[in-house]
Write a structure and sequence with these properties.
single chain, mainly beta, 5-stranded antiparallel beta sheet, 1 helix, 5 strands
Length: 67
């Protein structure tokens, strides 16, 4: 699995949280992961079988992408 994008959520409920998108198409689960992290103790992830699902979820976040 490789991280393909990282950034910071700019507005809304998760403002200031770190966000990362990982590509696991060649891994054990396939698809994509979207990670949201506020601290080492608070965060969660989403899993998407297809990129279209990932893109649909990303429209809910305004992100300042770093990579």
């Amino acid at each position: 699995m490789s991280i393909i994008r990282t950034g910071i959520v700019a507005t809304g409920e998760y403002s200031g949280w770190q966000i990362a998108v990982a590509d696991d198409r060649d891994g054990s689960t396939g698809g994509y992961y979207l990670y949201l992290k506020k601290s080492d103790h608070e965060g969660f992830d989403y899993w998407f079988e297809h990129e279209a699902g990932l893109q649909a979820q990303l429209v809910d976040f305004e992100v300042e992408w770093i990579v």
